[in-house]
Each structure stands twice: as structure tokens, then as C-alpha cells.
Write a structure and sequence with these properties.
By secondary structure, the chain is an alpha+beta fold. It is 32% helix and 15% strand. The chain is globular and about 45 Å long.
Length: 268
């Protein structure tokens, strides 16, 4: 385990692993679930989807596939229409970057030692077959609307690995990366106030770093109290209730029929 992240070789990963790669000179990282066969299921903004993708009409059982721009895997870039969950090959996922493996079940001391968030968690991972099943299920059902702070690629991978979903949607989601971005300005704001109380820039920097690390730990999915285990079959309902899914102005009449909520006839 490195202080920044856990770099691995391609021969070291296995199906069910949570992998990621750094983008834009380590500015941020992109996360996904390795499902085997050099394929990765990951989540991104719909506008970031390539123009040549596979689409599936939800009203039909047949799929309309377009040719992939990937020379090695014809199905690279497969996704449902209006969904940010996509299946790509490992090469396209990495985009020329290095491969890293997200770590689970780390000790609190090791978690706090990490310089960057979004590289590990104290939470335990579920079995690999469960992780792959969740990723492939969400590839067919979607993961709601992308939100950089509340529902991003790391949130997707964390859910696939643990089945945990945050109930509180007023702040950040389960993403450690998003928590780090939010924690930096807060720690800087507090440190500016500490300049009047603590003598010496070294002391202020030490306290600020400590507050930053502790804020990251407090928002880790392994220690948060506002997370629940949600079966993947119920994800669409929970994302909608949390305000992440698509907006629903009124209930579908056909859904009412399925739920036996049709209006009762008036008795004479």
C-alpha cells in the first residue's frame, strides 16, 4: 500500500476488483468494477459517453448495437439508452493511464495515513461473485443520474463492492474522493482561524492536516452510520427516493394496476 494509491499490474487483478486510474495529472480518479475478460463496468456522465455505443430499447427485448470504435472488443462501449453505466475494455477504461486497485477492510491507522481520499476504505467487500452480479445488473438497469458529489463513479464502485447506500443526500455520497475535495476548503477555513490561537505555521499546518484526515475518516463508508445495505434489485427505488434518479411527476397508471391501487368502484 502506497501513501498515494495502490498501483498494480494487469495480471494482479481479478473479477470483482474495484479498480481506478488517475486523470489529468492526478487531479481526480475514475473508478470501475473489473468483471473479468479484460472488461470493466463503470459509471460516468451521459455526455461523456462516446457517440458510437450500443443501446437497448427498454420497450423491446431486442438490442440495437452499433459498431464499437474499439479495435479489440466489438462490445466495448455497451450501455443502455439514457444510462451512464457502461461496459468497456480495460484499455479504454484506463485511457493510457496506470492501473490501481482500491483496497477494502484497511485498518483505521492505514486509512488515516493515506494522503489522498478515494483509494481505500475500512468497509469490508462482499464476495467477488456478488460484486460482479451487482455491476452487471446495474449495467442493465442504470444507476440514476450522475452527480460529482453525491452519485459518481466511486459511489457506483463502492455500492457494487459493499451493497451500502447513503441515506443522507444533503452532503456528499459515499465517495472518499468527493469527501476529500469538500474537506480541503473546510480545513483551510478552520486553519485561518487557528492562526490567531496557535503560534507558528508548523503547528497550524499540523492541526489542519489532522483535521483533514479525521474529516475523511468520519465520512468513510466503513464508519458512517447513515448507510444501509440495499439489494441491487431495489436500487432504482432507493435512488429515486434519494432524489438521484429521474424525476417522476406522477405515477404511471400501469404501475398502479400492478400494485393493485386502482380506484375502487362506488357501491350503489
Amino acid at each position: 500500500m502506497g501513501l498515494l494509491s495502490n498501483k498494480v499490474g494487469r495480471d494482479q487483478i481479478k473479477a470483482g476488483d474495484h479498480i481506478y486510474t488517475w486523470r489529468a495529472i492526478y487531479t481526480y480518479s475514475h473508478h470501475g468494477i473489473y468483471v473479468g475478460g479484460y472488461k470493466v463496468v463503470h459509471f460516468r456522465r451521459k455526455k461523456d459517453m462516446p457517440s458510437v455505443t450500443a443501446s437497448l430499447d427498454s420497450s423491446s427485448s431486442s438490442s440495437e448495437q452499433a459498431l464499437s470504435s474499439c479495435e479489440n472488443f466489438p462490445d466495448c462501449g455497451f450501455s443502455l439508452r439514457d444510462s451512464g453505466v457502461v461496459l468497456t475494455c480495460l484499455n479504454c477504461f484506463l485511457g493510457g493511464g496506470y492501473l490501481y486497485c482500491f483496497e477494502y477492510g484497511v485498518a483505521p491507522s492505514l486509512f488515516l495515513a493515506k494522503v489522498r481520499g478515494g483509494t481505500c476504505t475500512t468497509a469490508e467487500s462482499d464476495p467477488p461473485e456478488t460484486v460482479v452480479n451487482r455491476a452487471m445488473y446495474l449495467l442493465q438497469k442504470g444507476f440514476g443520474n450522475y452527480d460529482v458529489f453525491q452519485n459518481n463513479c466511486e459511489d457506483f464502485a463502492l455500492y457494487c463492492k459493499t451493497g451500502l447506500l447513503a441515506l443522507d443526500k444533503t452532503g456528499t455520497g459515499t465517495s472518499g474522493q468527493a469527501s476529500s475535495f469538500m474537506g480541503v476548503p473546510v480545513a483551510a477555513l478552520v486553519s485561518s482561524s487557528l492562526n490567531l490561537l496557535i503560534p507558528g505555521p508548523i503547528s497550524v499546518a499540523t492541526v489542519t492536516a489532522g483535521m483533514y484526515c479525521m474529516s475523511r475518516y468520519a465520512t468513510d463508508i466503513g464508519v458512517r452510520t447513515d448507510v444501509i445495505k440495499v439489494p441491487v434489485e431495489e436500487m432504482a427505488m432507493n435512488l429515486c427516493l434519494a432524489g438521484i434518479g429521474q424525476d417522476i411527476s406522477e405515477e404511471d397508471p400501469e404501475e398502479k394496476i400492478r400494485r393493485n391501487e386502482t380506484p375502487q368502484k362506488k357501491s350503489r
